[in-house]
Design brief:
The protein is of the alpha+beta class. The protein has 14 helices and 13 strands. The strands form three sheets. Strands 8-9-12-11-10-13 form a six-stranded antiparallel β-barrel. Strands 2-3-1-6-7 form a five-stranded mixed beta sheet, sandwiched between helices. Strands 4-5 form a two-stranded antiparallel sheet. A hairpin with a 2-residue loop joins strand 11 and strand 12 (429-440). Helix 4 crosses helix 6 (155-182) and helix 11 (340-351) packs across helix 13 (394-408). The longest helix is centred in the N-terminal third of the chain and has 28 residues, at 155-182.
């Protein structure tokens, strides 16, 4: 018989229901037609404290003398609050009728390590296979149960998680002592961490920039030009100007008097169109969501704590409604495209998409998201499953809405924009104008008036048709006074956003 060890009770019960639960109640596990299913309740073992390795340190005042602390052999100890469940797993592992272990941790580094370290703690010698799925709907569970490779294949995931945990211990335990001792005047422990310390530094740097900020006034010259096909506005290109006086090192005109002088010199003059370009541009739908994008967008729009957002995503995953949420891959496996019609049917039903937007959906479309070369064995982009969710919280509905729409967008035509750009030469100076008109909304229809980056449809900022060397009259010039903007404070969403440029991914989650 098999012993399935899941990462959490909810995951264990989900697997057990597919296997078929036998009648009877047991503490900390259930019996199925295929064996026993138990769980770890998350991290059931934890890194040992320094006192475990160096008993003489117990009760002693911190000092620099024993540093750096580097254990010769790392130890994991039971979490006190979870010792009862660990004992249940131990008894099940020792059962004579259990001949094979099924590692059913979450599909990722932490999930791999949590079960591996339990097996190592009990010196397990029985064969271990890996239950690995990115979706917990019945269809994906059955598929994973029918193809369970040797657990040794995933050893590298466990090694990565363990290395990160050991690095966290080394940095945290040693550096926290150093900083606390060196700054003893504060009279408290000063915590140092691999993630928290650089994050704090970024926040502090931004706060200093805000406190030291002095607004700077600068000027922009805006011209209104008359062309036979219509009027348009263009902005003076200060970086290509023949004038240098009054322009600072950032390329901003800061001298009002100089601005007035330039404006006066250019008034009532005739210019020519020096460049003109126009093209129709296709805009592909945004790629499926990753965890950092989901956290950033929901946090920004609803100001909800990212821990709550992540918990809602985890709940949906454990209910089988979305795929594994802790992913940083934006692409989808090509083989999954064959199930698209079924997933679309469920997702559109949940989102109640019944208007003309649904008619635009085409399950045969294959966007750039479907790319096996972009996918690791670890995870793929977030997407809904064929299991319709039963929402318990409004936040779960919000999370599902984002995940589902980004997936459904892959089955809409690309949006199309018509773009025009021109440059005007006026008395040796250059003015630049551009305009975009939406030709076809395509996937944007799905997002309506959402203001999230990548979803907002373009406006109707049009330029008239023209040709190079066309004459234009400058009928008005204005000197617009502007000010540099105060840097904004970081929010949780901006810190975790993969697209934000500060973090490649949020690894502390």
């Amino acid at each position: 018989m098999r012993l399935y060890i899941a990462e959490k009770p909810s995951l264990g019960m989900t697997i057990a229901k597919v296997l078929g639960i036998k009648p009877g109640r047991h503490q900390g596990y259930v019996e199925t037609r295929d064996g026993y299913v138990t769980w770890c309740v998350g991290h059931i073992l934890e890194m040992a404290n320094p006192e475990h390795y160096w008993p003489d340190m117990k009760g002693q005042k911190w000092s620099l003398e024993p540093l750096p602390m580097v254990p010769a052999q790392w130890a994991k100890l039971p979490v006190k609050a979870k010792q009862k469940q660990l004992a249940i797993i131990s008894k099940l592992l020792k059962r004579k009728d259990v001949t094979e272990i099924v590692h059913a941790g979450d599909a990722g580094r932490e999930g791999q390590m949590i079960i591996d370290e339990v097996l190592a703690y009990h010196h397990n010698t029985k064969p271990v296979v890996r239950f690995w799925t990115k979706g917990l709907d019945k269809q994906n569970i059955r598929k994973a149960l029918n193809s369970m490779p040797d657990n040794a294949r995933f050893q590298s995931y466990s090694d990565e998680a363990r290395a990160r945990a050991e690095a966290d211990w080394l940095i945290g335990m040693n550096m926290s002592r150093v900083v606390s001792i060196k700054h003893a005047r504060y009279g408290e422990v000063l915590s140092v961490g691999r993630v928290q310390t650089p994050t704090l530094a970024i926040i502090v740097d931004r706060e200093r920039a805000i406190q030291q900020f002095v607004p700077k006034t600068y000027y922009a010259i805006v011209g209104t030009f008359e062309h036979p096909n219509g009027c348009f506005e263009a902005v003076w290109d200060v970086n290509r100007s023949a004038y240098s006086e009054g322009i600072d090192s950032q390329g901003q005109l800061t001298n009002k008097r100089q601005g007035e002088k330039i404006t006066q010199a250019l008034k009532n003059t005739t210019g020519t169109i020096s460049t003109f370009d126009e093209k129709t541009q296709s805009v592909a739908p945004p790629l499926p969501m990753v965890l950092s994008t989901l956290l950033a967008k929901v946090n920004k729009r609803y100001k909800i704590d990212i821990d709550k957002i992540q918990a809602a995503a985890q709940t949906l995953y454990e209910a089988g409604a979305i795929t594994y949420p802790r992913t940083d891959c934006e692409y989808l496996p090509e083989a999954q495209h064959g199930e698209a019609a079924s997933v679309i049917e469920v997702a559109t039903g949940v989102l109640n998409i019944q208007d003309s937007r649904a008619a635009t959906l085409d399950s045969t479309l294959k966007s750039r998201a479907w790319n096996d070369k972009k996918i690791t064995e670890d995870h793929h982009g977030l997407m809904p499953t064929v299991q319709a969710p039963a929402f318990k919280l409004d936040l779960e509905r919000t999370v599902y809405d984002y995940v589902a729409r980004y997936y459904l967008a892959q089955f809409y035509p690309e949006a199309e924009d018509f773009k025009r750009r021109c440059e005007v030469r006026l008395a040796g100076e250059t003015f630049v104008a551009s305009g975009t008109t939406e030709v076809a909304p395509g996937w944007r229809r799905l997002f309506g008036k959402l203001k999230d980056v990548g979803e907002q449809a373009t406006g109707n900022n049009t330029l008239p048709a023209m040709q190079v060397d066309d004459p234009v009259n400058c009928i008005a010039l204005s000197l617009d006074e502007r000010q540099t903007k105060l840097p904004t404070r970081f929010m949780q969403g901006t810190l975790v956003d993969k697209q934000g440029g500060r973090w490649p991914r949020w690894r502390s989650l």
